[in-house]
Design a protein that fits this description.
- A hairpin with a 5-residue loop joins strand 1 and strand 2.
- Helices cover 40% and strands 20% of the residues.
- The protein has an 8-stranded parallel barrel, surrounded by 7 helices. Strands 11-10-12-9-13 form a 5-stranded antiparallel β-sheet.
- It starts with a strand and ends with a strand.
- With 389 residues, it is an alpha/beta fold.
- The protein contains 12 helices and 15 strands.
Length: 389
């Protein structure tokens, strides 16, 4: 979906396909047919933006086979879909029964992360619509915090510097500018937007910036205006923003609140949990750990890294951090000029929701994704952007 900002520029809205498990190119093509095109039709749009997730094997097949890449581009066009952004965070196995810490491998100290991201950039340069010259890719925020020493930090910095050089060369070759955004996430070396400033300044490349995920922003209790003002002051580009909402518990000491939170403690994804105290941010790696005993203070609200559907808040006594998303979006695109032109709804946890909230059929998932996009569309038009055909 495209929107005209009051300054005349185009802002793109997509939904991320990491909600649909697929590791191969055939699986990606099936996604377009079974999920993406139906969402477009449900919204009544001639064109729908998608944020493709291409796992290792799918990316490799595309970058080594020009005919396959042309075929994917043709299939996107045929189904009324377009891709200006990719999710390059998960490398493989995101549809596995247990993902947890695996999603942080390989990290940026591993040569495979550079190889994979470079492949994604080359693919995206060919997938961009004919009238679009800029693409974006979100990626791992350096590494998970453990086993990351000075040697690995130096390796990661070298890899990202090399990537910047390759992105420059790709622009020279294709005329397409592909930018990479480190996506701060709780528990990682770059956990907050503030943590991103020094590493990105050290790299010093205008095609490598930040991806602001509003669920992660909220989970770490970051104020959107403060965070985005600091990034602007440091001249860190916001390459893209993922529109998502975290799980919020206002009174985590209450038994009924803990009981409700426990229904979101599931075995597939990591749900880092945080609380803001007078001594600073406190947290656990997973929701179950927070609920066990006294691992996390419970005198103040808790937030958990669980991407809950945007259009429907969890039942009381829980809620979501949609207000943080609204505030971030107002700052990102509500000013005289947008801070980013690539927005992506990223609720990948539909099948990890408590059983009674999970979609039971493909059509229900289609309805849910379409409803999220409709809400995001309304937020954008309320900010003065005009939806384009």
């Amino acid at each position: 979906m495209r929107f005209r900002h009051p300054d005349g520029s185009t802002v793109h809205l997509a939904y991320c396909t990491n909600v649909h498990p697929a590791e191969t190119l055939d699986g990606v093509l099936a996604q377009l047919r079974d999920h993406c095109e139906p969402v477009r039709k449900r919204l009544g749009r001639d064109r729908l933006g998608i944020g493709l997730w291409l796992a290792k094997d799918a990316a490799r097949a595309l970058v080594t086979d020009p005919a396959a890449l042309r075929g994917l581009r043709t299939e996107l066009d045929r189904r009324g879909l377009e891709a200006v952004t990719l999710n390059g965070f998960p490398h493989e196995g995101f549809g596995a029964e247990q993902v947890k810490y695996r999603v942080y491998k390989p990290d940026w100290a591993d040569p495979e992360r550079l190889s994979h991201t470079n492949a994604l950039a080359r693919v995206l340069a060919q997938l961009l619509p004919d009238d679009v010259t800029e693409g974006s890719i979100s990626t791992l925020p350096l590494a998970w915090r453990t086993a990351y020493d000075d040697r690995r930090a130096a390796s990661a910095r070298t890899a990202l510097t090399t990537l910047g050089e390759r992105l420059d060369a790709l622009h020279e070759l294709t005329g397409r500018s592909i930018r990479i955004g480190l996506e701060p996430e709780p528990g990682c070396i770059v956990e907050t937007t503030a943590d991103a400033i020094a590493p990105l300044a050290a790299i010093g490349h205008d095609r490598i910036g930040i991806c602001v995920d509003t669920c992660h922003l909220a989970t770490s209790f970051e104020d959107p205006n403060t965070a985005l003002d600091a990034l602007a002051a440091a001249r860190v580009p916001v390459v893209k923003s993922q529109l998502s909402a975290a799980l919020h518990a206002e009174h985590p000491h209450l038994p009924d609140v803990r009981e409700a939170l426990a229904t979101f403690d599931e075995p597939r994804f990591l749900h880092q949990t945080r609380t803001s105290t007078s001594a600073g941010l406190r947290g656990t790696d997973d929701l179950g750990e927070a609920l066990a005993g006294h691992a996390l203070p419970d005198a103040s609200p808790w937030r958990a890294h669980f991407h809950v559907p945007l259009h429907t808040a969890p039942a009381a006594p829980l809620t979501s951090t949609l207000p943080v998303l609204r505030a971030a979006l107002a700052r990102l695109v509500g000013g005289p000029h947008p801070l980013t032109r690539h927005l992506e709804v990223e609720t990948y946890t539909w099948q990890a929701l408590p059983p009674e909230l999970r979609p039971r059929a493909r059509a229900q998932l289609t309805d849910g994704i379409a409803a999220e996009l409709a809400l995001a569309r309304d937020l954008l038009t309320d900010l003065g952007l005009k939806e384009l055909p």
